Amino acid sequence: MTEIARTPRAQRVAEHLIRRACRRLPGEAGAERYREWAAELPAILADGDVGSRLRRSARTLTYAAGISRCTRRLGRPGGRPRPRADLPAPSGFPARRVVVGVVIYVAVVALFGGIAAAFPGRAVVVVPFLPAAACFAAFCLIDLARAGQVRYLPKWGWAIACLAQIPLGGIMYLAIGKAPMARPEPPASS
Amino acid sequence: MKLTAPLERVLRVFLADSSARRYGYDLMKAARLPSGTLYPMLARLEEQGLVTSEWEPPPVDASGRPPRKYYQLTGEGIRVARLELAQAARTAAAPRAVHGTAQPAPGSAQ
Protein backbone atom coordinates (compact mmCIF):
# COMPACT_ATOMS: atom_id res chain seq x y z
CA MET A 1 0.00 0.00 0.00
CA THR A 2 1.40 3.33 -0.96
CA GLU A 3 1.65 6.15 1.49
CA ILE A 4 -0.90 8.83 0.73
CA ALA A 5 0.88 12.10 1.18
CA ARG A 6 -1.85 14.45 0.10
CA THR A 7 -5.09 15.08 1.88
CA PRO A 8 -7.71 12.47 0.94
CA ARG A 9 -10.38 13.71 -1.38
CA ALA A 10 -13.18 12.88 1.05
CA GLN A 11 -11.50 15.03 3.67
CA ARG A 12 -11.18 17.96 1.33
CA VAL A 13 -14.80 17.69 0.26
CA ALA A 14 -15.91 17.38 3.88
CA GLU A 15 -13.80 20.39 4.87
CA HIS A 16 -15.43 22.38 2.11
CA LEU A 17 -18.92 21.38 3.27
CA ILE A 18 -18.10 22.18 6.88
CA ARG A 19 -16.64 25.54 5.92
CA ARG A 20 -19.83 26.38 4.09
CA ALA A 21 -21.93 25.21 7.01
CA CYS A 22 -19.91 27.31 9.46
CA ARG A 23 -20.60 30.46 7.48
CA ARG A 24 -24.09 30.31 8.93
CA LEU A 25 -22.67 30.94 12.38
CA PRO A 26 -21.65 34.41 13.42
CA GLY A 27 -17.99 35.37 12.93
CA GLU A 28 -15.70 33.97 15.60
CA ALA A 29 -18.07 31.14 16.58
CA GLY A 30 -18.06 29.93 12.99
CA ALA A 31 -14.26 29.94 12.83
CA GLU A 32 -13.92 28.03 16.08
CA ARG A 33 -16.56 25.50 15.10
CA TYR A 34 -14.78 24.97 11.80
CA ARG A 35 -11.54 24.22 13.62
CA GLU A 36 -13.33 21.79 15.92
CA TRP A 37 -15.14 19.88 13.20
CA ALA A 38 -12.32 19.84 10.70
CA ALA A 39 -10.09 18.38 13.41
CA GLU A 40 -12.44 15.40 13.75
CA LEU A 41 -12.11 14.38 10.12
CA PRO A 42 -8.72 12.64 10.40
CA ALA A 43 -10.13 10.51 13.23
CA ILE A 44 -13.00 9.36 11.03
CA LEU A 45 -10.77 8.62 8.07
CA ALA A 46 -8.38 6.66 10.26
CA ASP A 47 -11.13 4.84 12.16
CA GLY A 48 -9.97 1.23 12.41
CA ASP A 49 -13.46 0.03 13.34
CA VAL A 50 -14.82 0.90 9.92
CA GLY A 51 -13.87 -1.71 7.37
CA SER A 52 -13.04 -0.27 4.01
CA ARG A 53 -11.63 3.04 2.92
CA LEU A 54 -14.75 3.65 0.88
CA ARG A 55 -16.95 3.31 3.94
CA ARG A 56 -14.70 5.61 5.92
CA SER A 57 -14.96 8.18 3.14
CA ALA A 58 -18.73 7.80 3.10
CA ARG A 59 -18.82 8.26 6.85
CA THR A 60 -16.70 11.39 6.56
CA LEU A 61 -19.15 12.88 4.09
CA THR A 62 -22.13 11.87 6.23
CA TYR A 63 -20.45 13.59 9.13
CA ALA A 64 -20.07 16.78 7.13
CA ALA A 65 -23.69 16.60 6.00
CA GLY A 66 -24.73 16.29 9.63
CA ILE A 67 -22.66 19.34 10.48
CA SER A 68 -24.58 21.23 7.87
CA ARG A 69 -27.86 20.32 9.57
CA CYS A 70 -26.25 21.16 12.87
CA THR A 71 -25.33 24.74 12.01
CA ARG A 72 -28.81 25.28 10.69
CA ARG A 73 -30.06 24.42 14.17
CA LEU A 74 -27.31 26.22 16.06
CA GLY A 75 -27.81 29.32 13.96
CA ARG A 76 -31.22 29.94 15.44
CA PRO A 77 -31.63 30.28 19.16
CA GLY A 78 -34.08 27.89 20.75
CA GLY A 79 -33.72 25.41 17.92
CA ARG A 80 -36.94 26.53 16.30
CA PRO A 81 -37.23 27.24 12.60
CA ARG A 82 -36.64 30.88 12.02
CA PRO A 83 -38.15 32.73 9.12
CA ARG A 84 -35.51 33.89 6.75
CA ALA A 85 -34.34 37.40 7.32
CA ASP A 86 -35.81 39.99 5.03
CA LEU A 87 -33.88 39.99 1.85
CA PRO A 88 -32.14 43.04 0.62
CA ALA A 89 -33.36 44.05 -2.79
CA PRO A 90 -31.51 41.89 -5.29
CA SER A 91 -28.65 43.93 -6.61
CA GLY A 92 -28.53 43.34 -10.31
CA PHE A 93 -29.38 40.14 -12.11
CA PRO A 94 -27.23 37.23 -10.91
CA ALA A 95 -25.73 36.49 -14.31
CA ARG A 96 -23.21 34.02 -12.95
CA ARG A 97 -25.91 31.90 -11.36
CA VAL A 98 -27.96 31.90 -14.55
CA VAL A 99 -24.93 30.66 -16.45
CA VAL A 100 -24.37 27.90 -13.90
CA GLY A 101 -28.04 26.93 -14.13
CA VAL A 102 -27.96 26.78 -17.91
CA VAL A 103 -24.73 24.75 -17.88
CA ILE A 104 -26.28 22.21 -15.50
CA TYR A 105 -29.37 22.06 -17.68
CA VAL A 106 -27.35 21.50 -20.83
CA ALA A 107 -25.37 18.79 -19.06
CA VAL A 108 -28.56 17.01 -18.00
CA VAL A 109 -30.06 17.26 -21.48
CA ALA A 110 -26.83 16.05 -23.04
CA LEU A 111 -26.77 13.10 -20.66
CA PHE A 112 -30.29 12.08 -21.58
CA GLY A 113 -29.65 12.73 -25.24
CA GLY A 114 -26.55 10.57 -25.06
CA ILE A 115 -28.42 7.78 -23.37
CA ALA A 116 -31.25 7.96 -25.88
CA ALA A 117 -28.78 8.01 -28.79
CA ALA A 118 -26.93 5.00 -27.44
CA PHE A 119 -30.13 2.97 -27.59
CA PRO A 120 -31.85 4.14 -30.77
CA GLY A 121 -35.55 3.53 -30.91
CA ARG A 122 -35.72 2.42 -27.32
CA ALA A 123 -37.05 5.40 -25.40
CA VAL A 124 -37.75 3.01 -22.55
CA VAL A 125 -34.15 3.38 -21.32
CA VAL A 126 -35.09 6.77 -19.94
CA VAL A 127 -37.59 5.16 -17.56
CA PRO A 128 -35.06 4.42 -14.81
CA PHE A 129 -34.34 8.13 -14.62
CA LEU A 130 -37.94 9.11 -14.02
CA PRO A 131 -37.75 8.48 -10.25
CA ALA A 132 -34.69 10.74 -10.11
CA ALA A 133 -36.60 13.44 -11.98
CA ALA A 134 -39.57 13.03 -9.64
CA CYS A 135 -37.29 13.20 -6.61
CA PHE A 136 -35.65 16.33 -7.92
CA ALA A 137 -39.01 18.03 -8.55
CA ALA A 138 -40.18 17.01 -5.08
CA PHE A 139 -36.97 18.29 -3.54
CA CYS A 140 -37.41 21.65 -5.22
CA LEU A 141 -41.05 21.91 -4.18
CA ILE A 142 -40.28 21.03 -0.57
CA ASP A 143 -37.43 23.51 -0.51
CA LEU A 144 -39.76 26.09 -1.99
CA ALA A 145 -42.44 25.37 0.57
CA ARG A 146 -39.98 25.79 3.43
CA ALA A 147 -38.37 28.93 2.08
CA GLY A 148 -39.60 32.09 3.69
CA GLN A 149 -39.08 34.24 0.67
CA VAL A 150 -38.07 33.76 -2.92
CA ARG A 151 -36.89 36.12 -5.61
CA TYR A 152 -38.08 37.24 -9.03
CA LEU A 153 -41.27 35.16 -9.09
CA PRO A 154 -43.96 34.56 -6.51
CA LYS A 155 -43.79 31.17 -4.84
CA TRP A 156 -46.59 29.73 -6.92
CA GLY A 157 -44.74 30.89 -10.02
CA TRP A 158 -41.67 28.94 -9.03
CA ALA A 159 -43.84 25.95 -8.14
CA ILE A 160 -45.30 25.90 -11.63
CA ALA A 161 -41.84 26.35 -13.14
CA CYS A 162 -40.47 23.45 -11.06
CA LEU A 163 -43.25 21.14 -12.21
CA ALA A 164 -43.67 22.24 -15.81
CA GLN A 165 -40.00 22.27 -16.76
CA ILE A 166 -38.30 19.36 -15.06
CA PRO A 167 -35.44 19.81 -14.52
CA LEU A 168 -34.88 23.32 -15.87
CA GLY A 169 -37.49 24.98 -13.64
CA GLY A 170 -36.04 23.40 -10.54
CA ILE A 171 -32.49 24.24 -11.52
CA MET A 172 -33.39 27.85 -12.18
CA TYR A 173 -35.25 28.04 -8.89
CA LEU A 174 -32.24 26.71 -7.00
CA ALA A 175 -29.87 28.92 -8.96
CA ILE A 176 -31.62 32.26 -8.85
CA GLY A 177 -35.00 32.02 -7.14
CA LYS A 178 -33.75 30.70 -3.85
CA ALA A 179 -32.98 33.33 -1.28
CA PRO A 180 -29.33 33.55 -0.29
CA MET A 181 -28.60 31.92 3.04
CA ALA A 182 -29.64 34.32 5.75
CA ARG A 183 -26.54 35.45 7.57
CA PRO A 184 -27.14 35.36 11.30
CA GLU A 185 -26.46 38.70 12.89
CA PRO A 186 -24.27 38.71 15.97
CA PRO A 187 -26.43 38.71 19.09
CA ALA A 188 -27.52 42.17 20.11
CA SER A 189 -25.50 43.53 23.00
CA SER A 190 -27.50 43.33 26.18
CA MET B 1 -34.31 19.32 30.73
CA LYS B 2 -36.36 16.92 28.65
CA LEU B 3 -34.70 13.54 28.48
CA THR B 4 -34.95 12.37 24.89
CA ALA B 5 -33.59 9.02 23.77
CA PRO B 6 -30.49 10.51 22.10
CA LEU B 7 -29.78 12.66 25.14
CA GLU B 8 -30.09 9.63 27.37
CA ARG B 9 -27.55 7.77 25.26
CA VAL B 10 -25.11 10.68 25.41
CA LEU B 11 -25.46 10.99 29.17
CA ARG B 12 -24.87 7.25 29.59
CA VAL B 13 -21.72 7.48 27.51
CA PHE B 14 -20.50 10.42 29.57
CA LEU B 15 -21.33 8.72 32.86
CA ALA B 16 -19.63 5.46 31.85
CA ASP B 17 -16.42 7.25 32.72
CA SER B 18 -17.24 10.69 33.99
CA SER B 19 -13.60 11.72 34.27
CA ALA B 20 -12.88 10.95 30.61
CA ARG B 21 -12.68 13.77 28.13
CA ARG B 22 -14.24 12.84 24.83
CA TYR B 23 -14.16 14.42 21.40
CA GLY B 24 -17.13 14.65 19.07
CA TYR B 25 -16.54 11.66 16.82
CA ASP B 26 -15.72 9.52 19.81
CA LEU B 27 -19.08 10.44 21.36
CA MET B 28 -20.87 9.91 18.06
CA LYS B 29 -19.56 6.38 17.83
CA ALA B 30 -20.15 5.53 21.46
CA ALA B 31 -23.68 6.93 21.53
CA ARG B 32 -24.39 5.92 17.92
CA LEU B 33 -25.69 9.34 17.03
CA PRO B 34 -25.24 11.34 13.84
CA SER B 35 -23.26 14.54 13.99
CA GLY B 36 -26.36 16.60 13.23
CA THR B 37 -27.93 15.40 16.48
CA LEU B 38 -24.92 15.28 18.73
CA TYR B 39 -23.41 18.73 18.33
CA PRO B 40 -26.56 20.78 18.89
CA MET B 41 -27.12 18.69 21.99
CA LEU B 42 -23.60 19.31 23.25
CA ALA B 43 -24.04 23.01 22.59
CA ARG B 44 -27.22 23.02 24.63
CA LEU B 45 -25.65 21.09 27.48
CA GLU B 46 -22.71 23.45 27.48
CA GLU B 47 -25.06 26.43 27.56
CA GLN B 48 -26.75 24.93 30.60
CA GLY B 49 -23.38 24.46 32.30
CA LEU B 50 -23.63 20.68 32.34
CA VAL B 51 -20.76 20.10 29.95
CA THR B 52 -17.47 21.89 29.51
CA SER B 53 -15.22 21.80 26.52
CA GLU B 54 -11.57 22.51 26.06
CA TRP B 55 -9.04 22.37 23.28
CA GLU B 56 -6.36 19.77 23.59
CA PRO B 57 -2.83 21.11 23.54
CA PRO B 58 -1.33 20.84 20.04
CA PRO B 59 0.03 17.30 19.58
CA VAL B 60 3.74 17.00 20.12
CA ASP B 61 4.30 14.05 17.80
CA ALA B 62 4.43 16.33 14.77
CA SER B 63 1.86 14.21 12.96
CA GLY B 64 0.28 17.39 11.72
CA ARG B 65 -3.06 16.50 13.27
CA PRO B 66 -4.96 19.61 14.28
CA PRO B 67 -5.91 19.92 17.96
CA ARG B 68 -9.31 18.56 18.89
CA LYS B 69 -11.97 19.90 21.17
CA TYR B 70 -12.82 17.65 24.09
CA TYR B 71 -16.03 17.53 26.08
CA GLN B 72 -16.57 16.49 29.67
CA LEU B 73 -19.43 16.61 32.16
CA THR B 74 -19.15 19.26 34.85
CA GLY B 75 -19.80 18.37 38.48
CA GLU B 76 -23.29 19.74 38.10
CA GLY B 77 -23.61 17.80 34.85
CA ILE B 78 -22.73 14.53 36.56
CA ARG B 79 -25.29 15.21 39.27
CA VAL B 80 -28.07 16.12 36.84
CA ALA B 81 -27.25 13.24 34.49
CA ARG B 82 -27.39 10.67 37.31
CA LEU B 83 -30.65 12.13 38.51
CA GLU B 84 -32.23 12.15 35.07
CA LEU B 85 -31.14 8.62 34.25
CA ALA B 86 -32.36 7.33 37.60
CA GLN B 87 -35.68 9.03 37.03
CA ALA B 88 -35.90 7.56 33.54
CA ALA B 89 -35.20 4.10 34.93
CA ARG B 90 -37.96 4.54 37.52
CA THR B 91 -40.41 5.75 34.92
CA ALA B 92 -39.51 2.83 32.68
CA ALA B 93 -40.11 0.40 35.54
CA ALA B 94 -43.54 1.87 36.27
CA PRO B 95 -44.70 3.35 32.98
CA ARG B 96 -48.27 3.92 34.08
CA ALA B 97 -47.42 5.59 37.36
CA VAL B 98 -47.99 9.30 37.49
CA HIS B 99 -44.75 11.20 37.59
CA GLY B 100 -43.68 11.74 41.18
CA THR B 101 -45.81 8.95 42.61
CA ALA B 102 -43.88 6.14 41.02
CA GLN B 103 -43.08 4.67 44.41
CA PRO B 104 -45.92 2.57 45.79
CA ALA B 105 -47.22 3.73 49.11
CA PRO B 106 -45.77 1.69 51.99
CA GLY B 107 -47.90 -1.33 52.79
CA SER B 108 -49.88 -1.19 49.57
CA ALA B 109 -50.20 -4.34 47.53
CA GLN B 110 -48.01 -4.48 44.42
Could you characterize what this model shows?
The complex is a heterodimer of chains A (190) and B (110). Chain A contains seven helices and no strands. Chain A is mainly α and 190 residues long. With 110 residues, chain B is mainly alpha-helical. The model of chain B has no long low-confidence stretch (mean pLDDT 83). Chain B is elongated and about 55 Å long. Chain B has a three-stranded antiparallel beta sheet with strand order 1-3-2. Chains A and B meet through helix 2 and helix 3 of A and helix 2 and helix 3 of B.
Q: Which features does this protein show?
A:
heterodimer, A: 61% helix, 0% strand, globular, disordered C terminus, B: 110 residues, three-stranded antiparallel beta sheet
Question: What quaternary form is this?
Answer: heterodimer
Shape of chain A: globular
The amount of helix of chain A comes to 55-70%
Number of E-state strands of chain B:
3
**What pattern of helices and strands is seen along the backbone of chain B?**
HEHHEEH
The rounded distance between the terminal residues' Cα atoms of chain B is 31 Å
Q: Can you tell me the overall shape of chain B?
A: elongated
How helix-rich are the residues of chain B, as a percent range? 40-55%
Count every beta strand of chain A, where a strand is a DSSP E run of 2 or more residues: 0
Rg of chain A, Å, rounded = 20 Å
